[in-house]
Design a protein that fits this description.
Blueprint lengths: L3 H34 L19 H15 L6 H6 L15
């Protein structure tokens, strides 16, 4: 059983873990929106479009999709990730070690 003095820092750590991803999605989607608005991306302004509530929906969807793809790498095995390494000239001996 945990003592009270250890439970409070654990609670703070847990709550901060839950609150960080929405802030990261917001920051990344606003960055994509700003680059698209200023014609810094070759997307013809797709990611600079706002919804009726002034939300860059396409930018948010792009960031969530990219985060989901990167999150799925946790499900891949080390052997599968290293299978693509011989095709890269700059990588010698595999990407990951077990």
């Amino acid at each position: 059983m945990q003592s009270t003095e250890r439970a409070f820092p654990d609670l703070i750590s847990y709550l901060s873990t839950l609150s960080d991803p929405p802030f990261a999605v917001q920051a990344c989607s606003r960055t994509f929106f700003a680059f698209s608005r200023d014609h810094g991306l070759p997307d013809r302004g797709l990611f600079s479009k706002l919804s009726g509530q002034k939300v860059p929906v396409y930018s948010v969807c792009l960031v969530v999709f990219c985060a989901a793809i990167l999150g799925m790498l946790d499900f891949a095995s080390v052997v599968a990730l290293n299978a693509g390494a011989p095709h890269c000239d700059s990588v010698r001996g595999g990407l990951l070690t077990s």
